[in-house]
Structures
1.
Amino acid sequence: MASLHRWLPILASGALAAIPVGQLAAGEVLDRVMTRGVMVMSTDAEYPPQSSLNSAGEFEGFDIDVGREIAERLDVAIEFVTPGWEVITSGRWNGRWDVSVGSMTPTVARREVLDFPAIYYYTPAALAVHADNQDIATPADVSGKAIGVGVATTYENYLKGDLVIDAEGAPPFDYLIADANIRTYDTDLLALDDLRLGDGVRLDAALTALPTIMEAVDKGYPIKVVGDPVFLEPLSVAIDKGDPELGAKLAEIVSAMRDDGTLSELSMKWYGADLTH
């Protein structure tokens, strides 16, 4: 992942998001986790290097390791569930899982149903094209073309022109792609799978996190990054709206993980770069 260092100068320090009070009884989820002795975390089985299943059928990745560390510091076990991303971001989880450590960007729309107690890293959103493509040199060059994205992601919002990131320290960005022919997929990796079939065969480009693109390149996908990242995503732990005790505890733990270097170590392990500041 050494190539990630090219984009590190654009990474900016952020702050913990505010913790609004919402629908749950105070402390309800935190009490359930501590009483049960298990934290249930939603994740994605096809989103390397953030989260995926290895050959032994075990979850691994940056988000997985961060979640495991949070559970360890809570002194509870951890279990993983894999609902669809659209289901996770819709909120109102009704106790089906307790927390999302899933590289989620706080947005105005998502904050209506979720709380974002702790930003734990930052990642550039980048455009990929097939390695054979010679016509697309900048993000603007894919205007009007078929672009693959994960459904209900910030990448889809960006292409629609309605992305509003709601996190302190998030740098401003411009919309560089107009009139995109948006093709949505259950996961970002599925978009890259279609892109690798050939230049323009199913897609002209895909928009996703830069680490996800570089992981695919490392695995032999015939794709390449075009231009500079189009925006920077602050990525946060997310919880169902309205449990300030749980939010405060998660914020405390993530802050300690940043201060003692754990987040930086995990970022270097999975990305080859420190994306946590």
Note: The mean pLDDT is 91.
2.
Amino acid sequence: MQKITPFLWFDKQAEEAANFYTSVFKNSKITHVAHYGEEGARVSGRPNGSAMTVAFQLEGQDFVALNGGPHFKFTEAVSFVVNCKTQKEVDHYWEMLSAGGDEKAQQCGWLKDKYGLSWQIVPDVLGKMMQDKDPKKSESVMRALLQMKKLDIQTLKQAYDRK
């Protein structure tokens, strides 16, 4: 068992969201679904027998989704970073996770999915470019980055090589 597990509060879409996320990421699965019993249903107002929590894994990372009601919403204050090796990978995660999400929230590789959860779809090479000892290179990459929604590796590399 991992030491820290992200616990995601949904209104009533926990099982739907977990199924969606496990369809997006290759090495992923639902590991357990716990249902509301009589007492839990009475206290929470959720239907008896409905999914209470859904434990799932995305690329080996454990998560738990809770059907807790409409009391809390996700904000951009917390996001999940998806590190990508290729543009094809960036494109895949961007297209899958942004489908049905908030178009306004998309900038610099950030997006909000259809459940309101924020993600950052980031090429691995970006960290190296941003940490370059030549400040002109990293500044050029930052200027290019600020103009993008979905990140484009080729454009970032051109900005990096521009000096």
Note: The beta strands are 7-10, 28-35, 51-58, 61-67, 79-84, 102-107, 110-112, 118-123.
3.
Amino acid sequence: MHCPPGTEHVFVCAGEAPCVIFMTGGRTKEKEIVYPRSEAALRHGAGVASETSSPAEAYTPFPHWQPNHPERWDGLPWD
């Protein structure tokens, strides 16, 4: 999936199985990052309560990513 610069987007796993999304991109200092309030994102627990330009504020509700193994390996898509 390609999101052009400035495109509002949110990704939500819709099933019971694990979901992995690999994202890459380039941000420049020319454009400000904006995390807009989105009712659709909030319904899925993936939004911000109020618009912010701070990644730290936007990701506060979520645990910091830590490299580790899943509790169970069976059922992963590459099994």
Note: The radius of gyration is 15 Å.
